[in-house]
Write a structure and sequence with these properties.
Strand content: under 5%
CATH class of the largest domain: Mainly Alpha
Shape: elongated
Distance between the termini: 53 Å
Structural class: mainly alpha
Number of strands: 0
CATH topology of the largest domain: Tetracycline Repressor, domain 2
Number of helices: 9
CATH architecture of the largest domain: Orthogonal Bundle
Number of domains: 2
Order of helices and strands: HHHHHHHHH
Length: about 190
C-alpha cells in the first residue's frame, strides 16, 4: 500500500532528527570544523547525497540544531506564551532549566564552545539574540511588576547569572547544588509557592 503524504512527512521528520542528533554528537565530540558532512552521513547510515536532501549545508544543519536546542528552553519559559511571566512560570522555568541542561548536556557544551569561536559565532548570534531579547523583555516586565528598581538592568543581570549558572552546571554538575541555587533565586525574588 502506498504511503500517504502524512507518512512521508513523518519519515522526513524522523530522518532529520536522526541527522541532527548524529551531527550534534559528532560536533560536540570532534568540533564543528573537524566534522565533515560525509562523517555525519556515514554515522547516520545514509549517503552524503541523501543527507543533502534534508539539509543544504553543514551551516544549515548547525543552525537547525541550535534552533531545536533553544526551542526546548523557550518552551519551558512563559508556558502559555502570553508574554507575561507569572510566579509559577518563573519557578517552573528555573526547575526545568537544570533538567534541560542535564538531558541535553552535549548540546549545551557545543553551544558554549561555539559562542567562543570567532568564525562560527556570527552564524549563531543573530538567532540567539532573538530569543535572548524576547526573554529579557518578558523578565523586565516581570521585575517591573515586582517594583524592582531598574527592571531592565535586573533582567540583564538575571540573564547573565543564568548563563553563568548554566555554564558552571554543564562543566561540573556533581559539585553544583541545583536545589539550593533554585531555592535561593526563588527566595531572592520572593516567589510565592502556590
Amino acid at each position: 500500500m502506498p504511503r500517504t503524504p502524512e507518512q512521508y512527512e513523518q519519515i522526513r521528520k524522523e530522518k532529520k532528527l536522526v541527522i541532527c542528533e548524529t551531527a550534534l554528537e559528532l560536533f560536540a565530540q570532534n568540533g564543528y570544523h573537524a566534522t565533515p558532512i560525509s562523517q555525519i552521513a556515514k554515522k547516520a547510515n545514509m549517503s552524503k547525497g541523501l543527507l543533502y536532501n534534508y539539509f543544504e549545508s553543514k551551516e544549515e544543519l548547525l543552525t537547525n540544531i541550535i534552533d531545536n536546542g533553544f526551542n526546548e528552553l523557550i518552551d519551558n519559559f512563559d508556558l502559555n506564551k502570553d508574554n507575561i511571566l507569572t510566579d509559577e512560570e518563573f519557578e517552573y522555568f528555573l526547575h526545568s532549566l537544570f533538567k534541560i541542561l542535564d538531558s541535553r548536556r552535549s548540546f549545551w557544551k557545543l553551544y558554549f564552545s561555539l559562542m567562543l569561536q570567532i568564525s562560527i559565532a556570527p552564524l549563531i548570534e543573530p538567532r540567539v539574540k532573538v530569543w535572548y531579547d524576547m526573554l529579557i523583555s518578558i523578565l523586565e516586565d516581570f521585575f517591573k511588576k515586582r517594583n524592582i528598581k531598574n527592571p531592565r538592568t535586573e533582567a540583564l543581570t538575571f540573564g547573565a547569572m543564568l548563563d553563568g549558572l548554566s555554564f558552571d552546571y554543564i562543566i561540573n554538575p556533581d559539585m553544583f547544588p541545583v536545589n539550593d541555587v533554585v531555592n535561593h533565586i526563588i527566595d531572592k525574588y520572593q516567589i510565592k509557592n502556590q
